[in-house]
Amino acid sequence: MNEDPKFQVRPLYLQVRDALLARIKDGKWRPGGNLPSEIDLYQEMGVSLGTLRKALGVLEAEQLIVREPGRGTFVRGHQRGQTLDRFNPMRGADGLPVGGQVKTRKVRLGSPTGGERAVLRLDASDKVVRIHRIRLHERRPFAYELVCLPERRFPGLAARAEIPDNLEGLAQAWGILVARAEGQVRAVPASPAAAAALSVADGAAVLSLERIAFDTDDQPVEAMTAYFDLRNAYCRLEMR
Amino acid sequence: MNEDPKFQVRPLYLQVRDALLARIKDGKWRPGGNLPSEIDLYQEMGVSLGTLRKALGVLEAEQLIVREPGRGTFVRGHQRGQTLDRFNPMRGADGLPVGGQVKTRKVRLGSPTGGERAVLRLDASDKVVRIHRIRLHERRPFAYELVCLPERRFPGLAARAEIPDNLEGLAQAWGILVARAEGQVRAVPASPAAAAALSVADGAAVLSLERIAFDTDDQPVEAMTAYFDLRNAYCRLEMR
DNA sequence: TAGTGGTCTAGACCACTTC
DNA sequence: AAGTGGTCTAGACCACTAG
Fold it and tell me: Which of B233, B238, B240 sits opposite A63 (nearest CB)?
């Protein structure tokens, strides 16, 4: 880790971050498990403690690890039992966390549309896995979700019996680290399928959430479109 | 700055951050102006360079300052000419930045409603300033905004001739530092005033954005409700 | 009591901007 | 050439957790 600094462009602490991230990706340190102590790590990697701590600080800011004074450093894992992942800002009209049943309706292998090819950066030969879901909240339909995943990133998914209910569950099962997501909330006329799923009139306005999720290499991992009954849902915002 | 550490709870670098922030608030360093160099600052404050730099890092993460290698450290100022402030996620249907005329319709001093008293944490005797605005985009009405500001934080505002077009402009003019905002986007039936402003049918569904902005002491600074034509607007999201 | 992460210091060298 | 922020090191002490 201590080559001639003359030819290094990427700062050492970012190289250390990359090396640590690579081990998390490899599954060397499991989600929820703890990393070696800072003392062990900086000695093993041949950098100073300050540099190692700066690298850990970056990973902490990226929400990939959690540090607890006196206890250790842990790989951040997906909280099971959460029905919505942390990249879903939609809430029920009552403001409570959405916590009903999830019906996974179809899981099919298919070819991407032009739009999906573009946002997921796929080749013509790539396949995608499509999942349709309906989420209930307080026994009423809350969301109708159309998920599109690159088959290359989720091999064997279409044939699986049990499928996780949200992005974080899927990602964790396939060892993918989701770093961020971007999207839009709009109102659109309901398609027949969305109208049926949400029990609203055909063509009535519904809220839509289009979302693209990216991994730590900034590669797209999932494209989702979700529809919500105008009256039962809103989008929660935190702005800095 | 170097008292007996036995009785210090708040870390020194956060105390330094607080001291620097106080000077920014006082207007000692103007928005856009530059701070003294790190060397001058750490010597003046009697802490080590590392501690001073950690304090600056916090202020940078809070988006209150900007550091430019080789040039210096600057107080982050509001970009004039931006019609929407950085705490407004709404965009026109074309995705372009909203950049039309802004009509400030009414500016009135009044008493807060119960809801406003609660979210702005006001006493019964406190007054509020209300501003109504209409924003145009591509010559069509884009947003109808109802702004509610504590008179105590914006003294003399109701009597001013020229009023800034958005939260950041207002805050800068009164020396307030906005740190964050939270809110919700929903669809609601248009009130008569909103319907008239947006040229939609009375009671038709419109998007609404309710937003509360907070300063660096986490005190509420503004409560806004804005309405948008469903067909012309959407909400842009970035999630981490 | 041993181990962990958090804070703080002092000093060196670097790339970059500005004059 | 002088000044700025960015990186990197080595070492000290602290509060907290756990056995």
Answer: B240
